Amino acid sequence: MTVQNTTEVAIVGGGIVGLSLALDLAERGAQVTVWERDRCGMGATQAAAGMLAPEAEGLTGDLLALGRRARDGYGQWIAQLMKRSELPCGYWCCGIVAPQFAEEPPAPLARPELLQKQAGLGEGIVGGHWYPEDGQVNNRLLLQSLRLAAGRAGVKIQEGTEVYGWHRRGDRLTHAETNRGALAADVFVVASGAQCRSLVPVPVEPVKGQMVAVFDPERRLQRVLFSSRAYIVPRQDGTIVIGATVERVGFWPGNTAAGLHQLLNGAIAVWPALADFPIVETWWGFRPYAPHENPLLGRVPNLENLWLNVGHYRNGILLAPLCAQLLGQTIATGEMDSLLMAFAPPPLALG
Fold first, then answer.
1. What is the pLDDT of residues 70-92, one digit of tens each?
2. Whole-model pTM above 0.85?
3. Domain 96-131+205-289 belongs to what topology?
């Protein structure tokens, strides 16, 4: 068997999580190759709504600290990315209104105050929360920008490369078995989202989310609306993204009438104007859920050269840049930010 020594760092997974880390490491001087089984970003990255919402999502503890730090640094990261790629990313610090219905716990803002943030809320909305620092990014534009920037930084992207397994010698992985043959690297990083359990025995499972988009040429919605029944994310071009179901059905594909019915009913109850807008797209994706929604970030302790960047669940778009910076620093220099300690992976039996 011929083993190809392909790269210093091999990253398995070409979504926003993997590409962000690839770009960070390349800019630190590493030779980086991304192995993507499909086309880059066609998993959770393509399916996301792009909310940057650690407050509205109700994150707690170490995950909230990670999310806030990620959100607070996002604007600077986007500015640097756009300079590299010369492409827009749809970053919008629009704030998030979290409307609540009468059956939910009392909220700090009454209905009249909430209507000052966003007009046209449904009659069932009695109050809610306002999160001025939360916002959004257009995940599909972001993917295009990130891929171009990574390529310009020297990252080698190999789409259609599927990893089947690993070969181990002692406490190191020597190479990966792939559909392109045996590929070696000095460092391996698994960043393959909901598919990662096919490569490493970690407690990450797919959670399906169905989505629908409508279009408002008048662009009347200027805030993200995040409710218990649906979230509603207006893009700057008039597209409005509505999501998302939460379904533990494995990798069962497709939209369903029941799923779309649930989303549209919930969203119209929050902002009734949606009822008159044309539907322009429906889709679905699989979020990588880890216990307590905590991602697994860092080196596998019993393997010198295997790192994990998986399990971001609903927060992949938000967390990807910061996770890239923190892991990139640790991989390149050995200096680990204390924030990563809460998300350290367990030992794994491989090879």
1. 999 999 999 999 999 999 999 99
2. yes
3. D-Amino Acid Oxidase; Chain A, domain 2 (3.30.9)
